[in-house]
Amino acid sequence: MTEATAPTSAMRFDPEIRQRIAAGQTPAISARHLQHYYGTGELSKQVLFDNSLEIYPGEIIIMTGPSGSGKTTLLTLIGTLRQAQEGELFVLGHSLHAATKSGLRALRREIGFIFQAHNLFDSLTATQNVRMALELADPGAGRRAQTTRAQAMLEAVGLGERTGHKPKQLSGGQKQRVAIARGLVHQPRLVLADEPTAALDEASGRQVVELLKKMAKEQQVTIVIVTHDNRILDVADRIVNLVDGSIRSDVLVQETAIVSQMLIKCDVFAHLSPRGLAEMADHLLCETIPAHQTVIREGEAGDKFYLIRTGRVSVQRAAQSQPLAILKEGDFFGEMALLTGQPRNASVVALEETVLYSLSQDKFRQAIAQQASFESEIRRSLFDRQ
Ligand code: CMP
After folding, report:
1. What are 132-170's pLDDT values in tens digits?
2. Mean pLDDT of the chain
3. Position 317 confidence tier, pLDDT thresholds 50, 70, 90
4. How many A from CA of 13 to the centre of ligand 1?
5. Mean pLDDT to the nearest integer, 216-223
6. What are the b/e assignments for 266-293, b being 16+ CB within 10 Å?
7. Is the distance from CB of 29 to CB of 110 less than 8 angstroms?
8. Which partner from 170, 195, 298, 351 sits 20 to 30 angstroms from 3, CA to CA?
9. How far is CA 164 from CA 140, 179, 301, in A?
């Protein structure tokens, strides 16, 4: 029988990511206790405080936060353009602290940078500007092959008709798309983008975002986007929010949406506001329970509330041969002892491997306190279950 996994943040549930962690896959980016300061001595100003973060190949991360919150600094540290003073940073399997200069140069070739200041060469055409990235990344490739790839990339960002134009003949949005093509043409394994869609209209922004999504999903390219553009939030697998140099939340978007949907389907949570639901989802811990393991023991004191993510459990009383209920995905249990202060009124046993979200008694109480109607709803369900 396998051991139950230690509870982890709900945001680590994503089945695909769990499989990768289980398979021992190396994260594309791993930051541990990263700190960064600008300046030295008395003038030194700390801009990043003890940040830890893991990003897996093929994930699209959107970093948000007020200006000055440290997002761009974090992006430049990941991009090896600056070195963090404290903490560890691994990018594409390499420790940046241990890397030699030539190691860093080689690593940079695997990264695609898309920065706001597009820095295109005025005297070169769109194709030549894009091709330059290939000449640097892959000097051995033939010129003709490089030109073909540069043009195909320009086509992919919707500039197939403008390949021979120089920056002065292009609009702001078109220039930005040339910069995007230049950042992606050498097929990087990691793309770091700072406000890539800010200068683009809705349709061009969407086109660029779809292209990034395709690269992430088909080629396992890891993509980190710093942006204020909420038109593109839907592309993110995770949203990392930085405030005053610290990661305040790291939300696996789809999972939060799934959990919120599950919660809202429970009558008792149906009245929580979307914000209340998301907050609750944020506090849930995820644990995997092997088949036949007891989650709750009749007669013990209650400490947690549970929501079933996948799998089935049986609710049973020692004195009765038949289970009281079989609960499945989306059902919850363990609320009664928390509400009444009485011991657990039944045992709950996993019938198969079951993934549970749990909420501590404190957080459960907070959720109840937030909403007057919530307590009466949950009491009603309590009554139904007696
Ligand atoms: P609690 O008493 O905290 O721990 C045992 C849990 O089993 C209880 O909360 C309920 O969530 C659940 N439970 C008890 N009786 C029933 C029932 N008849 N139907 C469904 N669930 C139940």
Report:
1. 999 988 888 899 999 999 999 999 999 999 999 999 999
2. 86
3. very high
4. 25
5. 92
6. bebbeebeeebbbbbbbbbbbbbbeeeb
7. no
8. 298
9. 24, 15, 74
Per-residue pLDDT of 35-71, as tens digits, reads: 999 988 888 899 999 999 999 999 999 998 888 899 9
Ligand 1 centroid distance, CA of 319 (Å): 15
Q: In the chain, count of helices (H) and strands (E)?
A: 12, 19
Closest protein CA for atom 12 of ligand 1: 333
Nearest CA to 189 out of 70, 109, 287, 103 is that of 109
| Nearest atom of ligand 1 to the alpha carbon of 333 | 11
Is the pLDDT assigned to residue 101 strictly greater than 60? yes
User: How far is CA 313 from each of CA 255, 302, 316, 336, rounded to the nearest angstrom?
Assistant: 22, 17, 10, 17
Using the mean position of ligand 1's atoms as its centre, give its distance from the Cα of residue 303 in Å: 14
How many angstroms separate the CA atoms of 173 and 176, rounded?
5
Do strands 238-243 and 60-64 pair parallel, antiparallel, or not at all (unpaired)? parallel
Mean pLDDT of 369-373: 61
Tell me the backbone φ, ψ of residue 254, rounded to 5 degrees: -60, -40
How large is the angle between the packed helices 274-283 and 361-370, nearest 10 degrees?
A: 170
* Domains within the chain, CATH numbers bracketed: 15-254 (3.40.50.300), 264-380 (2.60.120.10)
Percent of the chain exceeding pLDDT 90 equals: 52
| 14, pLDDT greater than 90 | no
- The order of strands in the sheet holding 347-350 is 294-296, 347-350, 312-316, 325-328
Cβ–Cβ under 8 Å, residues 179 and 120? yes
Gap between the Cα atoms of 336 and 262, Å rounded: 19
Expressed in angstroms and rounded, the spacing between residue 50 Cα and the centre of ligand 1 is 42
